[in-house]
Specification:
Elements: H1 11-19, E1 23-24, E2 29-30, E3 37-43, E4 46-53, H2 61-73, E5 80-87, E6 108-112, H3 120-133, E7 138-142, H4 150-154, E8 161-163, E9 166-168, E10 170-172, E11 175-179, H5 194-206, E12 215-219, H6 226-234, E13 239-244, H7 248-263, E14 268-274, E15 278-279, E16 286-287, H8 294-302, E17 306-310, H9 314-321, H10 337-356
Parallel strand pairs: 4-5, 6-12, 6-13, 7-11, 7-12, 13-14, 14-17
Antiparallel strand pairs: 1-2, 3-4, 8-9, 10-11, 15-16
Length: 364
């Protein structure tokens, strides 16, 4: 005779106890201890609850859902489990950096490259749109004062207006966007020295009504010049993403870029290898035009995360030229997929850093 599972008198408490053993991978804490399990209700043998992710872009939802369902099933008596999902992104308060946080902006991160021509702006735009598609509230600042390409890649044309003494950013794909390209005539060259660049960045950051954002992404100009220095002094950065192509010449600049951010006390969230390989649409043959795997090796050598490989694909260029980045096609699109993987990795690294709250990085 099969014995029936014992049903505890307080079944909601039993569910909560069972879930106390389920871990959140980035926080390395139990869901219950981290207060990420809420509204546990039991109606007969039916269980419902809310699970809070650390980001709408968290890469761990499937793992957490599997572990939650297994933990509840282990009680024996529940017949159905209904999970409601929500997300709360943690706020970075700086790691001993200079400047004041932007009101309403939880995390500001820079996308940078040691040299030009590696597709940094394309990555920044698609990373931004991917985070938005995954449900995050995200804004984009085109910090390349001398060569603002973001408006064209997002298909935005217009001038921002002043509203309540703040500049109202333009918008595309649900993302507030600000760029020097909105303030200058097409083809007009910006010929400024360092102090003017710093002042422009200050205004584009602090005089803009960004609203409530989980992430503000800043597309920096290439190199290790005035803009990264100014940005790091204007506000605390959650971290920097370094974009590189695989060949050794580009990787030398990756090392310089990482060294620069270390000196500025900005954590490096990871490295993305752009133009990693090319797959022929006719034959399916793979060509490693700029070599392959160099960015991963550099990341391992320097002890920073590797956020993924993005192939060289003509569709990415065509989409950018048409003002509709490939990430706007959604996470299930084959060409857009690598940007979504990188976006999840960035969100994960920010969660880890904010949870760890490491000591301020030393000034080198």
């Amino acid at each position: 005779m099969t014995s029936l599972p014992q049903v505890p008198p307080d079944r909601a408490a039993a569910v909560t106890q069972a879930l106390s053993r389920v871990m959140e991978p980035d926080l390395q804490r139990g869901l219950v201890a981290a207060r990420l399990v809420r509204d546990v209700r039991v109606d007969g043998n039916n269980v419902s609850l809310t699970v809070v992710l650390t980001s709408p872009a968290s890469p761990h939802r499937e793992t957490i859902e599997r572990d939650v369902r297994e933990a509840i099933a282990g009680l024996g008596w529940p017949s159905t489990v209904e999970i409601t999902w929500t997300a709360e992104v943690s706020t970075n308060t700086g790691f001993g950096q200079e400047g004041d946080v932007l009101a309403g902006v939880k995390n500001t991160l820079a996308v940078a490259s040691g040299k030009g021509g590696v597709g940094k702006s394309t990555v920044a735009v698609n990373l931004t749109v991917a985070l938005r598609e995954l449900g995050a509230k995200v804004g984009l600042l085109d910090g390349d004062i001398y060569g603002p390409n973001v408006p064209g890649m997002l298909g935005i044309d217009g001038r921002p207006i002043l509203e309540n003494d703040k500049i109202k950013p333009l918008s595309a794909f649900g993302v507030p966007v600000m760029s020097m390209g909105f303030l200058t005539d097409p083809g007009q060259a910006v010929i400024w020295r360092g102090p003017m660049v710093a002042q422009a960045l200050r205004q584009l950051l602090h005089d803009v009504a960004w609203g409530e954002l989980d992430y503000l992404i800043v597309d920096l100009p290439p190199g290790t010049g005035d803009a990264p220095l100014s940005l790091s002094q204007l506000l605390p950065l959650s971290g920097a993403v370094i974009v590189s192509t695989p060949q050794e010449v580009a990787l030398q600049d990756v090392r310089r870029g990482i060294a620069m951010f270390e000196k500025l006390r900005v954590p490096v969230l990871g490295v993305i290898e752009n133009m990693s390989y090319f797959v022929s649409p006719d034959t399916g043959a793979r060509f490693e035009i700029f070599d392959h795997g160099g960015a991963r090796r550099a990341a391992e050598e320097l002890g920073v995360p590797f956020l993924g490989e993005i192939p060289l694909d003509p569709e990415v260029r065509i989409a950018s030229d048409n003002g509709r980045p490939v990430a706007s096609r959604g996470k299930d699109d084959a060409v857009a997929g690598p940007y979504f993987e990188a976006a999840r990795g960035v969100a994960s690294e920010i969660t880890k850093l904010n949870a760890a709250r490491p000591d301020p990085l030393p000034v080198l």
